Amino acid sequence: MRKILLLSALLASALLAKDVNIGVIMPLSGSTAAYGQAALEGIKLANEMKNKLPNGDTVKIVVLDTKGDKIESSNAAQRLISQDKAIGLIGEMLSANTLQIMSVAEENKVPLIAPAATGDKILNNKKYSSRVCFMDSFQGSSLAKYASDTLKYKSAVIVSDQSADYSLGLSRAFEKEFTAKGGKVLKKLRISSGDKDYKAVISQIQKLNPDFIYMPVYYTEAALFVRQARLAGLKTPMGSADGVADDTFIKLAEQAAENHIFTDSFDYTNPPTKLSKDFIAQYQKSKKTKEVPNFTAMGADAYFVMFEAMQKCASSLTSECVNNEIHKTTNFNGVSGIINIDKSGNATRSLVVKQIQNQKQVYKDSINP
Fold it and tell me: Which of 105, 135, 148, 242 could disulfide-link to 181, CB 3.0 to 4.6 Å?
């Protein structure tokens, strides 16, 4: 009788089981497509590894392309919630586009996890939004400490993209920490997204002769800048943030990228957790390549954190419950490291410093908060 009751319960559970959607909103085309494509690879693999909830439900992902556009980001979030009934959202990669999704998520009370939106203030006054990445203030100040303490640089020039809050926030954090360490910022120079000619800026830097150039811009502009700088004979060491972490930067910059340092979230040669090791092994098996991109790890972590919250809410699966559990995330052993998420949705986590050597990203150091 006991076996019959158990079988009946299992059969009833199977019959009641359903598909549950997570909406994924990424720039899969346009100028920042490399970020979105890498993150999506991680989300897809994470979904393959873990998709069954304790109540028998299957977690599915529904993917929409933002084309790197703010309006497309907002429209995608609206559609995923209204048409696809997504219980939660993951996206975007840029802070400005993520803010558009956050607005929709907050209005509809649906949890959003951002894999890589690092702007310090984007979670201010938000209840249903969170992230698995660090903030720009931590990223910018960490490289400043590394440049001062480890590399012993005494002077720097900062090159910022005046059209990107990401770049401006990182620049402020770097300057504050670098000067606090006794370093001198000789000049702050501005460029804009889409610029093609940096000769005038490079000429100014040559005259200033700094020890270091901090350039927290996205990979397209960074690659053009370093190529033109090296052609002009400027040999000053340069560094950036995670905007150059995708290998597209190396492909575009070629030899000019050599010795470039940058901050990042993850290094596949130093897996910090068991999930990290398992994920890397699965990725290398399915992709037939050793290198696991950082944004792939961050996309996976956004999914795994949401899936963990959904597991805890399986007996009463609602967006409200999932959101509450996400904001209680404590010592989560993610692909990229240990992640804690507070009530504001901000993540506390470490970062890594890398350097490009022989056209490869090489791990140099880890910095804890």
Answer: 148
